[in-house]
Amino acid sequence: MEPLADSNLIVIGASVGGVNAMLGLAAALPPDFPAPILFVQHIGAHPSRLPELVSAQGPNPAVAPQDGEVPAAGTIYIAPPDHHMLLEDGAIRLSRGPKEHHARPAIDPLFRSAALCCGRRAVGVILTGALDDGTAGLRAIKQCGGIAVVQDPQDAIEPSMPLSALACVDPDFVVPLAGMAQLLT
Fold first, then answer.
1. Model-level pTM?
2. Peptide bond into 80 cis (omega under 30)
3. Is 152 among the catalytic positions?
């Protein structure tokens, strides 16, 4: 496993329509994807089988991370219910900190921590969803030299999050979901 300090890291956030989007993305990723992926879906405190569902769709395993786990390339880490997923000193940290955008897990805490932890090696991706969670975090990734990717709002089930990101961040790429796996690879 490459140390996190030497590899890229992909952080993805979604809300309304995000489960289907992530299932499609996971199915399109190649085996042994070359970077860790950390994914936040607004699920609140509800029990979730999302890691199992994502794992069943593609060749890369999806897991609910353990606090302190170091992200490994080719693994999709899915924020567990009622916990923010953060990066600190190259490791995943789980927090029950205050809700952001009425959500825990929320996208902005992960993206901000990825910006600080990984700088230019961070790739932030905003997928379908309502309101504006992820916009401030995506801006932080760009300000720290990382790459900003936004799902084409016309392709999103709910375009509010992509539209918010486009209004506040100059993204490096705007692509439909069907082109996302190839771009990230």
1. 0.96
2. no
3. no
